[in-house]
What we know:
Elements: E1 8-13, H1 19-26, E2 32-38, H2 42-52, E3 56-58, H3 60-64, E4 71-74, H4 81-90, E5 94-97, H5 105-117, E6 122-124, H6 132-143, E7 149-157, H7 177-194, E8 197-205, E9 210-212, E10 222-224, E11 230-237, E12 242-248, E13 255-263, E14 266-270, E15 281-283, E16 300-302, H8 314-325, H9 333-352, E17 356-357
Parallel strand pairs: 1-2, 1-4, 2-3, 4-5, 5-6, 7-12
Antiparallel strand pairs: 7-13, 8-11, 8-17, 9-10, 11-12, 13-14, 14-15, 15-16
Helix pairs in contact: 4-5, 5-9, 7-9
Amino acid sequence: xxxxxxxxxxxxxxxxNISDQYLQNLTRFPDVVVRxxxxxxxxxxxxxxxxxxxxxxGGVEVVLDDPDIDIVVNLTIPAAHVAVSEAIVAAGKHVxxxxxxxxxxxxxxxxxETAAAAGLRVGVAPDTVLGxxxxxxxxxxxxxxxxRPLFGQTTFxxxxxxIFHPNPAFLYAKGAGPLLDMGPYYVSTLVHVFGPVAAxxxxxxxxxxxxxxxxxxxxxxxxxxxxxxxxxxxMDFEGGGQAQSLYSTDSPLVRQGIVxxxxxxxxxxxxxxxxxxxxxxxxxPLSRHFVPPEPVVQEVVDVAxxxxxxxxxxxxxxxxxxxxxDRPHVATxxxxxxxxxxxxxxxxAAARRTFVEVASTLDQVGALPADFDPFAAT
Length: 378
């Protein structure tokens, strides 16, 4: 359901750090209008509403009770995602939720079943993978530009969000950490390339049992670390192909946004999946005439990005248009559930130090057309 006539009404629940990125874009997309912002801290919601020209703000009920809002963006903390999304569905509205879909498989599946029974849609971040970066790379692979994809490598390592975030404790709680917080970007990208995941293996460690807030009013406060802060991961995909990944907030050396897909005829470098675009290159195999110790010179080909660069809210906009066109949206709840199932399986594999099969699967992985223009009124 999206009520007909004109633009589609959108509400936000959660007015924290990430809300700026959504509001910057949703207030520019002509197909939607942000009508209200709700937060447990009502003053924070009102401040964001004033900053972005949103007419209504206050508690969560301001959004849930508004009859002119068709879709609600859930920007709460991961542990609250399912409960808030269920409240949105109960209010008769579609859901776009920040990642992950939830922190528990049964609760997440219940949400999707409840929404489907009500004829409502669920969309799940990250929608960065719908930007020109990953989508152009995906089309290049489909064309055969690197031959048959064989394996992927991804890396996300640094010293942790407490160096910039004024309230970082939730990022080290159940449902977060480098795996559940940042893993969705990398796993979603790999699933777009290789298809659904069949099994995973992992090793995990905890660099320190506590962390300390470094900025803001709470600087100096210690908080517990509830999850592995470093994980080394292997992934096996249903359709063939493998991947290895590192997720760490224990590293003084910063190496983020690394996604490399190697095929039989080249290695494709994809932009940081926490962004919507960036350079895309293919490195070709060495000439068969190369003889060590000659200098290694390889052919590197630039891949021209296709599509309009936007930002967070792109997946919600695709869902709005998909409802109007009676087609599936790309970042579906089922996709988000498979990513969550994979991430939780990685946690279990690290705890058990063995391979764990991923029970869920996907019939197909959708794609955004190259001519999708978020700034065109449709």
